[in-house]
Every structure is written in C-alpha cells, then in structure tokens.
Amino acid sequence: MRILAISILAGLASVAAAAASAQAVASPATVVIRGEAGQLATLTATDLDALPQAMATIAHDGKTMTFTGARLDAVLAKVDAPLGKAMHGPALADVVLVKASDGYRVALALSDLDPGVRADPVILVDRQDGQPLGKDGPFRLAAGGDLKPARSARSVVEIDVLRLP
After folding, report:
1. By CB atoms within 10 Å of each CB, which of 31, 69, 108, 135 scores lowest?
2. Hey, which CATH number is domain 29-163, 3.40.50.2300, 3.40.50.360, 3.90.420.10, 3.30.2130.30?
3. CB under 8 Å to 105, separation ≥6 — which residues?
C-alpha cells in the first residue's frame, strides 16, 4: 500500500512538473519595469517592438555586434520616469537598476538615458544582427558608445527606477 501511495505521488509530481514546463514554454517572455513611486509595467517583446527603436553597435573580443531594440527612455516612460523637461533637480540623482536572471546587476544614471543628455542610446535589446537573442535573451541591455560592454547585461528580467536620498 505504501509503495502504491509513493508511486501515485511521484506520478502526480511528474504531471505537475510537465504542466509547469508547458506553461513556461507557452507564455511569452516578459520584463518587469518598476517606477520610483511604485508604478509597475510588465512588457513583452511585442510591447517593446511598439516603442521607439534604436540600434547600438558594440565591439567585444574582436567581434562587432549590432543590437536592435526599444530605447530605454521610452521603456521607462511606461512607469512615468522623469525624463525630458522633468529631468532636473532631484531627478538628476535618480538611478536605473537593471537586473539579469543570473543575478548580474547594472546601475545607470537616469539622466544618461535622456536623449537631451546622451547622444548614443541605451536600449533594451531583443535582436542581435537581425536575429532573436537566443541564449543571451530574451532581453539584453546595450549601452551604445560604451568603450567596454560591461553594462550590456544579458537575460534582463527587471528594471527599477530608484530615487537616491
């Protein structure tokens, strides 16, 4: 009787794991965006494709890669980040914390994302050289104009706008 109960529990666990795996495959990849006042947006690749797009070229290890994706300032506008005319005073101390699925984190000054301050765009990438990102995706950060790609976080899952005291 005990063996039968263990077999049934093992079978149920296997079915539950298969269902969870199928659901993960079926659901689109998302990135969570949090504003400094608690605003929340969960965006898919389709949502990002509807935002203003830009390209960034990054050289690393003798290879040049071209990334395409949504401008990060447009992404952060979804949570009312203070950009454009609102970029003054306390907003100049705001930071953007980008988090990857492997625990890697990158901090950027919010003012560095404003097109009126920085010529090269920082983008939330979903394509490299015209193709989906693959193992580095589904989303990646690319900071155009950086001499070293250390801020180009792979597998981005969350972006927070934070006000420093």
Report:
1. 135
2. 3.90.420.10
3. 97, 98, 99, 153
Express each pLDDT in 4-38 by its tens digit.
444 443 444 444 444 444 444 446 799 999 999 99
Long-range pairs, 46-50, Cβ under 8 A, ≥24: 48/75, 48/124, 48/126, 48/139, 49/126
The predicted-structure confidence for 29-83, as pLDDT tens digits, reads as follows 999 999 999 999 999 999 999 999 999 998 888 889 999 999 999 999 999 999 9
Of the candidates 98, 86, 92, 122, which has an alpha carbon nearest to the alpha carbon of residue 110?
92
| Residue 140 and residue 134 in contact, taking contact as beta carbons nearer than 8 Å | no
Q: Distance between CA 74 and CA 77 in Å, rounded? A: 5
> The whole model's pTM is what?
0.81
Say how far apart CA 147 and CA 73 lie, in whole Å: 21
